């Protein structure tokens, strides 16, 4: 089992920045991929960015060029640096992880492990 704990959410004005963190615990050596998802009120959960052992980080079109996903190899802590935030980025942001290869961190229906979420609110 893997447990995930997010932190770093908050409220900012449009154009501002935030950095989210996700600290894994448990059988962290089994993690193959990690990702950030988000869910706005009344909308489906959507993928924001994914990182895994074999390929370069991958981003949703809506955040590419503004958000950066990274991981500390020593601690396995996952980060999401969010710059030039927009009101449409407002959502509950979730950290997710999986031990399987083959794209499991690209779909909210497939990913095995989830954190509780951290709220990001961007005002205009």
Walkthrough of the structure:
The chain has 124 residues and is mainly β. It has no helices and 11 strands. It starts with a strand and ends with a strand. The mean pLDDT is 95.
Compile the SSE list and pairings.
Elements: E1 2-7, E2 10-13, E3 18-26, E4 33-39, E5 46-52, E6 58-59, E7 67-71, E8 78-82, E9 91-98, E10 113-114, E11 118-123
Parallel strand pairs: 2-11
Antiparallel strand pairs: 1-3, 3-8, 4-5, 4-9, 5-6, 7-8, 9-10, 9-11
Q: How many strand elements? A: 11
Give the overall form: globular
Main β-sheet, in a few words?
7 strands, mixed
What ranges have pLDDT less than 50 throughout 5 or more consecutive residues?
A: none
The percentage helix is: under 10%
Q: How do the SSEs run, as a string of H and E?
A: EEEEEEEEEEE
Q: Which value, in Å, is the CA radius of gyration? A: 13 Å
Nearest-integer average pLDDT: 95
Q: What's the number of helices?
A: 0
Q: Give the distance, in angstroms, between the N- and C-terminal Cα atoms.
A: 40 Å
By secondary-structure content and strand pairing, the structural class works out as mainly beta
- Taken as a percent bin, the fraction of beta residues is over 45%
What key attributes describe this structure?
single chain; 124 residues; mainly beta; seven-stranded mixed β-sheet; four-stranded antiparallel β-sheet; 11 strands; 0% helix; globular
Brief digest:
With 124 residues, the protein is an all-beta fold. The chain has no helices and eleven strands.
């Amino acid at each position: 089992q893997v447990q995930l704990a997010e932190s770093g959410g908050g409220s900012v004005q449009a154009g501002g920045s935030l950095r989210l963190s996700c600290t894994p615990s448990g059988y962290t050596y089994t993690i193959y991929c990690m990702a950030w998802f988000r869910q706005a009120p009344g909308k489906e959960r959507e993928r924001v960015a994914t990182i895994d052992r074999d390929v370069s980080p991958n981003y949703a079109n809506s955040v590419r060029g503004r958000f950066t996903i990274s991981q500390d190899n020593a601690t396995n802590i996952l980060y999401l640096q969010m710059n030039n935030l927009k009101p449409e980025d407002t959502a509950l942001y979730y950290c997710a992880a999986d031990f399987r290869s083959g794209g499991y961190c690209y779909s909210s229906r497939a990913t095995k492990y989830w954190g509780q979420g951290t709220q990001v609110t961007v005002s205009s």
